[in-house]
Design a protein that fits this description.
42 helices, 33 strands, ten-stranded mixed sheet, five-stranded antiparallel sheet, globular, single chain, alpha+beta
């Protein structure tokens, strides 16, 4: 085949114009400890630090690379293309430690990949001449270096290790088809032929230990996982629970074996490095075990919840029992006697009420009798990486169900559905289809599984139906084809083909890239080895490919087009049509020279029917013109698509059909949209696959460690496209990302901080930290300012410095409002909403999958995700890996509507992710606050009284003078009159209060009188007024509302709130309490720190009683209220700002694990506000996981739960 040059010039270095620089790659754990460091990594200077880390930490060969190489010449092979082997003579001249090392330059990797592809392409007659081979080699190296495209991860792991370095290793049981030798051959070593395929579909037979059976499947999966690939299987052939066995017994059922496979997958690191196994489990809806399968993950998560709650409850109760046994008040004769030791009896009754097993209670008493004074009982939590999740099954795979049109029609018509036995084909059970459908929707709502695969639609677009139906998919659901086949993926970075200045997409360059990458994937089939004979044979026969693209969301944003728009969907459809059309045209061209795939003639009519339907969709024909479809596609509407893109898409399909009708096709499938997880980071894509962006503010990794906060680079481009001036763009960007400086910040700046004792050196250190932090308070810590400064100048204690709840800025006297205003100026608002100059009609251009930051309210509606998939699906051979994002408050009915819409818009599969549907994610803070509010509803006054510091009984009551000063304040709260009278000591401090409610019932007035007496007695016994104020302000109950008659207070959340705000303003100079916003009256509003504290917090934070002095009570310095740095989380997020656990837990039970949980929860909130999922990466521990197709990827280390 002829290969032209588009990106390089003949006889010139393909890297011409690319500057390579040395960088350091460093990966740290979440706690800052070093995981790995690689120095002197040579990469293009335009690459981000994350891209550098991906290639260095994941894709560089870490060992066995010879320091000296020589060519191994082969007959008919150009010398420059011959494979290399270790130069033994040269190696012997080096010290033993220097003979073998690792890859250190990106050029080595580009050469290894492109050279290996060229070598195998030459061996298989893919090039018309040596010039074409050289053109291909240079063009591929250029595209890799310039991040124009990238193959899937297994190519980076495995391809070229033998060709470039002569690496060899023992055979791993792989097979390949050798056309010269004829037929299947067993691999002689593990490196000569790489395993470049990412996606596999394995069959499984209803056989326990035979070849192709259940236990054999786990072995084959392990071989795939080891080399970095993912696999899926349909388990519907397996007999169900209770079906007869040949030996006369009963089967243990499908689920028992799925749990074994799940365990096996969880133990394997894919690629031998840091990626976990990627696996898909699929089941037909007529399998007798379908109900158990659908509810599998839901029930397993219930087990995790039970483990977490039960372990904490059990530990608390058992601790109390053993402490009661060793109470100092008990003698040796009575301490173990349940009847005589009252404390022991009480703790046992509490344990029994909590359903603690009796034998465990007795066991603890027995241990105490043997002298044991303390016990350890493991506590579990709901963290994804915790022992709780590791204990249960079903967590290492994606689960999907196969839905036929017959089943979905039965649901619509309220019909019955038969579950069929696998052994004899008889009906095992008949049930309403709607009941089973409801369980699917509930499970998807509860645990984000199972996903749906629409079996009828998939097979109506099947190019090879004569060889059987498509029954399964790979783990990410983009590759759907016959069992025992494989697909290797590659994705093209769309942003590299868009000319921002001209505002056009470079069609010819893109077409050229599609051609070359289709050839590359075809060569990968030729050179590959496969895990078993069946896959080797069928992959050779069908030669399926998976070319796709990435960065669609960024492209649309830079073009100034909303993701959720008709124009956006039309452009996505046109680009998808160009991609698949160009790939099939190249496939037909290859078929003309190399021959069509083995089974093409048998499937000719079916394949041409499918491809003509692709052509029809590109021309947006009427539905009656489609051939063989029951669900019809969404065509490209000409009125919404740029004409040059539509013309190009239609031309590609005209060429693809004309060439295919003449030559046939080399490949049964050519395209799909993969999640492009790790390789998306390698290409520095803002968005992955077909996904929109997840946040407008990104955290760019720095070469020396740490992060720098930047705005999504698509935003300035979009603003330029929309016509904004440079100075306006600067203001909008600063609004989003902040000034990052103390210089001109309101309230908290260099001048105000110098006045509080800050030195220039400390301020310079804080300034260096500000551009990297999410919240201004994070820059004010002992590690930035220095421990000596904190203790010597700011007079902070170790307890304050080490407390996660301590807010230094509040301690310094800045109010909550001042801190927030300064934070907005310095750290930005992380959203474009309400940005200066920005017109509201342009907001949709910048919408993301989630709400942006604390202030963002907008997000892309779930239906828009479905419609974007529907726009691209008609032009793809395979499917699309994409998640339908839903807010946390989405209902089960919303999930059902999304599923139905996906089916009717002709998607092949769908996966719904409702924010917070995983138990491991923290609940959003609004819900948490509403739970806490329940504690206050029954008796708000009595609940608040519990928070008051203990009265110091050793102090005598200080009597008031018989004639004393004070004042009377009349006010109306929500239409209810209240009179507050005070009595003062001679020094002006408060000593008593009187409260009178006008026209209220006798019971309420009496209660308020008694309450006033109790407060007065407390004041006279030495309880500081500030303790009462902190405890009672912001309590919520009626009457509340607008306050009239008081100059300082205009609104109040309750009578008690008003009284203590008035007293604090008058006697403590607490001017920060002089306003209440209407939002504070809402039942679901977020309360203040003091209101949310548990009893244990107050107990542990209370001052030493001996420090109270009646003479100085009301003259005490106003107490700074420590407030959380984050006050509100988006309504559809999963943050939980309170990490203190349950306020009812006894003080002695609060331990290090609970403190750690609080830290983890608060950091998860921050992660959610940054646009991340809130879960920790299983590899590096960072809370930087984002949705990536149907999987997750880590933005820090690049780990992905998928197979790309």
């Amino acid at each position: 085949m002829r290969i032209d040059r588009k990106f390089t010039i003949e006889s010139q270095d393909p890297y011409r114009g690319i500057k390579f620089v040395e960088r350091v790659s460093k990966i740290n754990n979440a706690d800052g400890s070093l995981v790995a460091e690689i120095k002197n990594v040579l990469v293009p200077d335009s690459w981000s630090q994350v891209a550098v880390d991906i290639i260095a930490q994941k894709y560089f060969r870490k060992a066995g690379v010879p320091a000296r190489l020589k060519k191994k010449f082969e007959p008919g092979m150009p010398e420059w293309l011959c494979p290399s082997v270790p130069d033994e003579e040269g190696l012997n001249q080096l010290p033993e430690s220097a003979q073998f090392s690792r890859e250190t330059t990106s050029q080595d990797v580009f050469h290894r990949l492109a050279g290996c592809w060229t070598y195998w392409g030459w061996k298989n007659n893919c090039f018309s001449s040596e010039k074409d081979a050289r053109n291909y080699y240079d063009e591929m190296r250029y595209m890799l270096a310039r991040q124009l495209a990238a193959p899937n991860s297994p190519q980076w792991f495995n391809t070229g290790l033998n060709w470039a370095y002569g690496l060899e290793g023992p055979a791993q049981g792989h097979y390949y088809v050798d056309t010269e030798a004829g037929g299947l051959q067993k691999s002689k070593n593990s490196y000569e032929r790489p395993q470049p395929h990412a996606c596999f579909i394995l069959s499984v037979e209803d056989d326990l230990v035979g070849e192709g059976g259940i236990m054999d499947l786990w072995r084959q999966e392990a071989r795939l996982f080891k080399f970095g690939s993912g696999t899926g299987s349909n388990f519907s052939n397996l007999r169900s629970n209770g079906e007869s066995l040949s030996g006369g017994g009963k089967s243990s059922g499908l689920m028992s074996f799925l749990k074994i496979g799940d365990r096996a997958a969880g133990a394997i690191k894919s690629g031998g490095t840091t990626r976990r196994a990627a696996k898909m489990v699929t089941l037909d809806m007529d399998h007798p075990d379908i109900e158990e399968f659908v509810e599998w993950k839901v029930k397993e998560e219930r087990k995790v919840a039970a483990l977490a709650a039960g372990s904490k409850m059990t530990r608390r109760c058992l601790k109390e029992i053993i402490e009661a046994c060793w109470s100092k008040d008990e003698s040796e004769e009575t301490r173990f006697d349940v009847q005589k030791n009252k404390a022991l009896g009480k703790s046992i009754r509490k344990a029994l009420d909590s359903f603690i097993p009796e034998n465990y209670i007795y066991r603890v008493i027995q241990l105490a009798q043997q002298g044991v004074k303390d016990i350890e009982f493991e506590e579990y939590d709901t963290n994804w990486t915790s022992e709780g999740y590791l204990t249960v099954s079903g967590q290492n795979s994606n689960n999907s169900v196969r839905l036929t049109n017959e089943f979905l029609r039965a649901v619509e018509c309220n019909g019955d559905w038969n579950l069929i036995r696998r052994t004899d084909g008889k009906v095992a059970q008949t049930m309403p289809a709607k009941d089973l459908w409801d369980k699917v929707n509930y499970s998807a709502w509860s645990s984000a599984d199972p996903g749906l695969q629409f079996h009828t639609t998939i097979n109506e677009w099947h190019t090879c139906p004569e060889d059987g139906p498509i029954r399964a998919s790979n783990p990410c659901s983009e590759y759907m084809f016959l069992d025992d086949t494989a697909c290797n993926l590659a994705s093209i970075n769309l942003m590299r083909f868009y000319d921002e200045e001209k505002g056009i997409f470079a069609i010819e360059n893109y077409r050229h890239a599609c051609r070359l990458w289709t050839l590359t994937l075809e060569i990968s089939v030729m050179m590959a080895q496969f895990p078993n004979k069946a896959i080797a044979k069928r992959s050779y026969e069908f030669r399926t490919l998976g070319l796709g693209y990435a960065n669609l969301g960024a492209l649309l944003m830079v073009m100034g087009i909303p993701y959720d728009s008709e124009n956006g969907r039309a452009i996505a459809g046109a680009i998808s049509a160009m991609t698949t059309g160009a790939a099939y045209a190249m496939s037909a061209e290859m078929a003309g020279e190399l021959g069509a795939f083995t089974h093409f003639e048998k499937n000719r009519s079916s394949m041409l029917r499918v491809l003509k339907n692709h052509w029809r969709a590109a021309h947006n024909v009427e539905v009656h013109e489609y051939d063989g479809l029951t669900i019809f596609p969404q065509g490209i509407p000409a009125e919404h698509c740029p004409s040059y893109l539509l013309d190009a898409a239609q031309k590609e399909w005209a060429d693809a059909l004309a060439l295919g009708e003449r030559n046939g096709y080399r490949n049964a499938q050519t395209t799909c949209i993969a999640p492009t997880g790790t390789i998306g980071l390698l290409m520095d894509c803002d968005t992955t696959g077909i996904e929109p962006d997840y946040a407008l503010i990104k955290y760019k990794k720095l070469a020396g460690g740490g992060y720098f906060k930047i705005i999504n680079q698509s935003v300035p481009g979009a603003l330029r496209k929309l016509g904004y001036k440079p100075e306006e763009i600067k203001d909008i960007v600063e609004y989003c990302v902040g000034m990052g400086s103390l210089e001109s910040a309101p309230y908290i700046n260099r001048n105000s901080l110098r006045a509080k004792g800050f030195t220039d050196e400390v301020l310079d250190n804080i300034q260096l930290e500000l551009p990297t932090v999410f919240d201004i308070s994070f820059a004010f810590n002992q590690f930035v300012m220095g421990e000596r400064f904190c203790k010597d100048v700011l007079k902070l204690t170790d307890e304050q410095l080490n407390s996660m709840d301590f807010n230094l800025l509040a301690h310094l006297g800045f109010s909550e409002e001042e801190i927030q205003v300064a934070n907005d100026s310095i750290c930005g608002r992380m959203t474009i909403e309400n940005a200066p100059h920005l017109k509201e009609r342009h907001y949709p251009v910048f919408d993301c999958a989630n709400q942006c930051g604390k202030y963002g309210k907008r997000f892309i509606r779930p239906e828009a995700h479905i419609r974007m998939m529907a726009a691209a699906q008609p032009f793809l051979s395979g499917a699309i890996s994409k998640t339908i994002n839903m807010p946390n408050d989405a209902s089960i009915a919303d999930v059902e509507r999304a599923h139905v819409l996906s089916w009717k818009l002709m998607l092949k599969g769908t996966a719904i992710y409702r924010d917070g549907s995983k138990l491991s994610q923290p609940l959003n803070s609004v819900a948490v606050d509403s739970f806490k509010q329940l504690k206050m509803e029954e008796a708000p006054v009595m609940q608040a009284v519990k928070q008051i510091v203990k009265v110091v009984r050793e102090h005598k009551r200080k009597a008031l003078p018989h004639r004393r000063k004070g004042y009377t304040q009349k006010a109306s709260i929500g239409g209810h009159k209240v009179y507050l009278r005070t009595g003062e000591y001679e020094d002006g401090t408060l000593g008593e209060i009187f409260i009178d409610m006008h026209k209220e019932g006798a019971a309420y007035r009496s209660l308020m009188n008694c309450f006033a007496i109790a407060i007065s007695l407390g004041l006279q016994h030495g309880v500081p007024l500030e303790e009462f104020s902190d405890a009672f302000v912001f309590t919520r109950f009626e009457p509340n509302g607008i306050v009239t008659g008081n100059k300082a207070i205009t609104m109040s959340t309750s009578t008690i709130d008003y009284i203590f705000r008035e007293l604090a303003i008058t006697y403590l100079d607490r001017t920060d309490l002089a306003q209440v916003t209407p939002d504070d009256l809402r039942a679901d509003s977020i309360g203040k720190k003091n209101q949310q504290s548990s009893d244990d917090d107050i107990e542990s934070d209370s001052s030493d009683p001996s420090s109270f002095s009646p003479g100085t009570t009301t003259q005490a310095k106003p107490k700074a209220v420590a407030t959380p740095a984050i006050s509100r989380v988006p309504s559809n997020g999963n943050g939980n700002g309170n990490g203190n656990g349950n306020g009812a837990v006894a003080p002695q039970v609060l331990n290090d694990s609970m403190e750690a949980r609080g830290v983890a929860t608060s950091t998860a909130v921050i992660a959610k506000l940054k646009g991340y999922e809130g879960d920790a990466c299983q590899e590096c521990g960072s809370l930087t996981l984002v949705r990536n197709g149907t999987c997750l990827k880590c933005m820090t280390c690049g780990a992905t739960s998928g197979c790309s």
